[in-house]
Amino acid sequence: MAVDPPDVELTMERLPQILDHPTAPEQSSAPSWKPSLHAVAAPPAIPGSAFPEDLATVTTRELRLLCNRTFQHLDSDHPALEAREQFDALTEELERRERQAAQRGTGDSARETFRDNALFSRFELFRNGVMAGYVQYDMRGGHVLLLHSVIDPRFQRTGVESVLMQAVLLDAHRRRLAVMPYCPEAQDFLAAHPRFLSLIPARQRRRFTLLMASRAESAPRDGA
């Protein structure tokens, strides 16, 4: 399915993007805090559904449930016009809370930098100036094909892979790019974070859902 390329920059070589949610060391315990509520204007609710007027007053668990429910409605044959606006509002609020949680770490939190290396066609994540991992991609018009992921052995089991995948998908969302997840790491992350599934084109999204269901069914047999 041909899609016109979006009017976006295809490289961030000269202007690396500093992540707003640096990963705090795992051993540091989050201090007690009291969330600062701010008014978040919610879009008009879908008729017959209870969409909150102020998303800041909703618990994170309820936000995730609403996000998944709204995505399922958005993926139906005849979604309501307000569904897209509601889904974007829920996603933005969840991302805001994730950034806020990351910023509660200690002052020695790792500094992470994400950039699109267009020369080598890969999304790179640096931690404290050292490349921790990258995702190789192929850009075809308005589609970005995620081919494979590589994590430096020194950064394995530190949560870098999850941070990298989230940065890749947030960048695709910002640039209005459709995502084609060919590497298993991207597929696993999308399955665990369904709010990003809207980045996959509708036709491939249904195939992706079937693929994940097939993998889940075959997993017990493989381990037997």
How would you sum up this structure, described in words?
- Keywords: Transferase.
- With 224 residues, the protein is α+β, with helices and mostly antiparallel strands.
- The chain has two domains: 39-109, no CATH class; 110-218, Gcn5-related N-acetyltransferase (GNAT) (Aminopeptidase).
- The chain is built from five helices and six strands; from the N terminus they run E-H-H-E-E-E-E-H-E-H-H.
- A six-stranded mixed beta sheet has the order 1-2-3-4-5-6.
- The chain is globular and about 45 Å long.
Features:
224 residues, alpha+beta, Aminopeptidase, 2 domains, 6 strands, 17% strand, N-acetyltransferase, GNAT_dom, GNAT_YJDJ
Topology diagram in text:
Elements: E1 17-18, H1 60-74, H2 83-102, E2 112-117, E3 122-127, E4 130-140, E5 143-151, H3 160-174, E6 178-181, H4 184-192, H5 202-223
Parallel strand pairs: 5-6
Antiparallel strand pairs: 1-2, 2-3, 3-4, 4-5
Helix pairs in contact: 1-2
